[in-house]
Amino acid sequence: MRRVVPAILALLVAVAAVSCGETSSEMILATTTSLQDSGLLDTLVPAFERQSGYRVKVIAVGSGAAIAMAQRGDADAVFVHDPQAEAEAVAAGDLVEGALVMMNDFLIVGPAADPAGVRTAADAPDAFRRIAAARAPFISRGDRSGTHTKELQLWAAAGVDPASLGSRLESGLGMGATLTIASERGAYTLTDRATFTVLARTLSLAVLFQDAPELVNPYHAYVVNPDRHRAVNADAARAFVRFLAAPDTQRAIAEYGRARYGAALFVPADPQAREGFQR
User: Fold this and answer.
1) Helices in 134-245 by DSSP H: which ranges?
2) Could you give the domains of the chain?
3) Which of 60, 62, 68, 255 is 20–30 Å from 148 (CA)?
């Protein structure tokens, strides 16, 4: 019995250490579906694993759901694109040590015939007002993602209550699936540029409005606060955020998509990596 008790105590200590993220070689990354649908994570995550020795478990959900995971302590790092929700989580102390990694922009896409006249809109809120006035079908993510948040902001700026629109449908799905539904229904939707570019050949949708300052789409990475959530693998999360901001990674982001799609899908945050950048 004397030998069993120390053995049990040693096992409990080892389990506690792993549960607190002190010795784990795995990192849980909560991120947005646009990074998965664009394929960028398939480039960045293996490179990080090779360089760091950590194994990454990716959970791709809407940005709101990813931040909620951080608030529960169910992730080690987040990589998201919802500035308002991010700022609230930082102020609450759930996210720390953040870094701007890259950006792209949102697009308003829809049927090429453009019955709502979005192409000639003065700005993005005007485009949304036209969609509402035409009672044109619109597919919303409806999933608390960064794209969904931006959509709601644009409806508000347009002076339109989206709940009053009988032609607006919430998919509750990721960006790729939402684009597919919009294509099948001849509907408008708001999308990030990367996911649309990757899927464009499979869709019957046209880019109708773009290149407006209100459509800028920044992506940040954060460490989930280990002082608030003891199980967080903070060392792995910090290594991941540093990796994303490193010059080699920033150059890889600048080149991603260029060879396959004829255009880069993201703009790196590092000004040096942006030198000579062309979308």
Assistant:
1) 146-158, 175-185, 193-199, 234-245
2) 4-103+218-268 (3.40.190.10), 105-215 (3.40.190.10)
3) 255
